[in-house]
Amino acid sequence: DCFKAFYVHKFRAMLGKNRLIFPGEKVLLAWSGGPSSSSMVWQVLEGLSQDSAKRLRFVPGVIFVDGITSSWVFPVALRSAIRENPLPKGRWPTPHNSARKHCRGFPQGEVAPCPALPGSVSPDSFCLRFSEGAAFGKSLEERSKTLAEVKPILQATGLPWHVVALEEVFSLPPSVLRCSAQEPAGSEGAYKAAVDSFLQQQHVLGAGGGPGPTQGKEQPPQPRLDPQSLARPPAAAQTEALSQLFCSVRTLTAKEELLQTLRTHLILHMARAHGYSKVMTGDSCTRLAIKLMTNLALGRGAFLAWDTGFSDERHGDVVVVRPMRDHTLKEVAFYNRLFSVPSVFTPAVDTKAPEKASIHRLMEAFILRLQTQFPSTVSTVYRTSEKLVKAPRDGPAASDSSPCCLLCMCALDVDAADSATAFGAQTSSRLSQMQSPTPLTETRTPLGPCCSPGVGRVQGCGQGACRREDPQACIEEQLCYSCRVNMKDLPSLDLLPPYMLAEAQLRTQRAWVLQEIQDCLIEDSDDEAGQS
Q: What are the start and end residues of every segment in region (Disordered) (predicted)?
């Protein structure tokens, strides 16, 4: 009983001291089936029950993203073996002994050509096909089995739930990458006023004597099992496109970052489509400590406050909150064991991967190994993250005018080409290589569209819109430093979902048009700006 009271108090205190979730607000619970997210959903259900002392007053819903989570071997693991013993065309034997030393921890399987390059026998285009699955990701039988385990748990919660396939990112609109106008955060007085108004409405409904919720019995709406709540089978073309995208990524680090980005965009779109203004994730204290060290290694030091803090307001109208950030994985495991919290195990991208397979795995092993020797390691790293302060915006409309990254949607942290940093030196050298000397006759010839329709676009951006012959450079300049480094492991950006390519083209066109009409714009003086 003491442990349960302490565990519940941590969850309630995290929500109570921040006061970001107002009464009656719709909150989407991002459930992955793991221990932390399952415990989070259980805590919300406990807070909505009749026996709770201080009941939660928001309206929750649950979402589960069914995606490609099966383990695979990245091409680096098999390069040396295949180069030593080239495989005959049309024959795909089991991995060589020299390859197994790079693939320790993986089950016995077959070597198969990567779907991204059909018929290719290049050493860089191989992935591991397990005996129980397809050449990439999970088979239809495995996904059906996972959904069969997920559906009873979601139905038992009594909350509105949504199951979406990861392949649906190829049908997202470009607007998902645009930060909507964010309402200013309410003060403590505004929160108290919202609570009083909510209690007054409940009292009026209870005094009416109707079938509505009575005083102290506000119940969340019961889920309607419409076809939208069930996971529709993804189209074969979308599944193939997703497989080609992930199989073309060279490193496991870039695959994990890309997978997390696509999941975030999909959850964000579902939250906006169903009217949710908050999204809860089950990031625990241990996971956030590992994430902090990982993001430092990935070059995301400028965004640690958003990536590990309680709230993440980068998306504008939808705020991501992390109420489980005070619970360690050990506490979560004990609570789930003692109180029989249901969960579903789904293999992750790095399941059974070697320790040095990716930066994420390396940092996880480093932190957990230190934790076994020094029990205060996770707590120290986590408390350090609490001291990070988010950089203030440059005005109320800064979120609309300031450029943000095309993938992570954080503010661009890259320097100019003439800056005295290492990144600026790299950028200037790359630009000098691209600007090769051309004859005078060639410079006077009209240039065609620099963004060809073949890069996921419906039409070119027009002459001079990008001022580059390589459309990939137009996309890279809209990425932050960390995302640029990760995208270097993707040979071609043509495989990205269409909504990313369309938004990149639109931003490039707007920047070019703004530059063309800059001389015609009338800027407000300081006095007029202060009066407005």
A: 204-234
